[in-house]
Amino acid sequence: MTKRIPLIARDLKRLYTGFLIAAVLLFIVCSVLTNFNVMTLIANGDAFWEFITEDFLPPALPKADRIPGVLSSVLVTLALAMSATTVAAVFAFFVALFGSERVSPFPRLAKLVRGFATFLRNIPALVWAFILFSSLGIGTGVGFVALFITSFAFMVRAFVETMEDVSQDCVESLQAVGASFPQRVTQAILPSCLSGFLSWFLYCVEVNIRASTIVGMVGGGGVGLTLFSYIKSFQYDIALSIILLVAVMVIVVDRVTGKLRKEILK
After folding, report:
1. Of 121, 74, 68, nearest in space to 216 by CA
2. What is the pLDDT of residues 50-100, one digit of tens each?
3. Cα(250)–Cα(256) distance, rounded to whole angstroms?
4. Count of structural domains, the chain
5. Which of 96, 97, 123, 216 has the fewest C-beta atoms lying within 10 Å of its C-beta?
């Protein structure tokens, strides 16, 4: 008699089955709590596709005199993301030095620094934009500050983890011979962690290119504000053209930064 050999171990199969059952139950519970009905979504599917095919498609270009303004807003979005990320990276580097218990001259403050960065990071850029909108008004200032706060908090945590993962032999050797804190940073931390810092910086640029568009829609300036103005005026076909332009911009930036990260991490 031929003995059947299972492709998946029984214990692993039970684990997968249990996970699937738990996922289904969680979906049902969440649907009940949110009053989500799949059948309603299916029933309204025709209206959704009618809206897409009749209002959004085909994409259309704005008037000739407005095209330079749209392209200018795209450049503003790129500049906004780059400037906010760059300034945030500089501040994050100096703050992260005090967030690592192995590096900081005041180890007791390290947990406080990391906790503060975690608090800021858990508030999305969109929420910061809404908070700042009431005080700063509409403009790129709102977008810059919102992106700066979230980028700063993210990179503080990322830089701290990068420093924690690096071997401390060099730092301890310099400390043993009486090197000052700035000397330990310039001679040990920067050479060991620079590639990691740059990699996280480029990743943050990718994230902020997308986030700057969303932040712009609530008053942060750039292409997001332009897109929202067309949506608000029911010119969905032109809005679709801008959405496609933003998608191309994001893809190009992702490709470029992804390639740079690979070169840095070699």
Report:
1. 74
2. 777 776 777 777 777 777 877 888 888 888 888 888 999 999 888 888 887
3. 10
4. 2
5. 123
